[in-house]
Design brief:
The chain has helices spanning 13-20, 48-57, 79-96, 113-128, 147-160, 187-209, and strands spanning 33-37, 44-47, 61-66, 73-77, 102-107, 132-138, 165-167, 172-174, 177-184. It is an alpha+beta fold. The chain has 2 domains: 19-80, Translation initiation factor 3 (IF-3), N-terminal domain (Ubiquitin-like (UB roll)), CATH 3.10.20.80; 102-209, Translation Initiation Factor IF3. The protein starts with 12 loop residues before the first helix and ends with a helix.
Length: 210
């Protein structure tokens, strides 16, 4: 692109800025025709110069949003405001896509009520922040004889978290510990959680009866 009245080799900041733009705007759009869409115009195909005149009359920018279309699709908007909104959306999406961590909650077969409630509050906090929770009962030595007690404890824990956590399966043994996994509850997981909740209640009644 030639710039009149500028000595060769002299740096032009405007040209540098245009090279870094994600979208072509205004005079950078060099096709003969564009398709206008959006709130500020009557949609249709326009001569590019006419489209730029419409943008100038509204003190806005002609922005190419779909360069691969035939003809390219443009909108008449405030480009700086558009970039700000795009940046804001990306930031929000990045925040929502926070990598989920797995937080561990540990019990023993003899965990008392006070400690149990303390661990429930911690688990609720983790789940509300979008993290998964792995809860396990650790059996040491002869405590392995109390597997049923550990299972009841984990089922009770699942019942306490039913509003915020979706249980991913029934308690299972891994070596000398019994564990369960919870995921942050979503609408998608609600049905599965309710089904598992029914299984938990039935299992609790059965074990307490024994």
């Amino acid at each position: 692109m030639a710039f009149p009245n500028r000595p060769r080799g002299v740096f032009n900041p405007r040209f540098k800025k245009e090279q870094q733009q994600e979208h072509r705007t205004n005079h950078m759009i060099r096709v003969p025709e564009v398709r206008l869409v959006g709130e500020n115009v009557t949609p249709g195909v326009f001569n590019t110069n006419d489209a730029m005149k419409i943008a100038q009359d509204q003190e806005l920018d002609l922005v190419e949003i779909s360069p691969g279309a035939n003809p390219p699709v443009c909108r008449i908007i405030d480009y700086n405001k558009f970039l700000y909104e795009e940046k804001k959306k990306k930031k929000e999406m990045k925040a929502k896509a926070k990598t989920s961590e797995v937080k561990e909650i540990r019990f023993t077969p003899n965990t008392d009520d006070h400690d149990f409630e303390f661990k429930v509050k911690h688990a609720e906090k983790f789940l509300k922040e979008g993290d998964k929770v792995k809860a396990h009962v650790q059996f040491k030595g002869r405590a392995i004889m109390f597997k049923d007690r550990g299972e009841l404890l984990l089922l009770k824990f699942a019942d306490a978290l039913k509003e915020v956590g979706a249980l991913e399966g029934m308690p299972k043994m891994e070596g000398k510990r019994m564990l369960v996994m919870f995921a942050p509850k979503s609408q998608k997981a609600a049905k599965k959680a309710n089904d598992i909740g029914k299984m938990i209640k039935e299992d609790k009644v059965k074990k307490e009866a024994e």
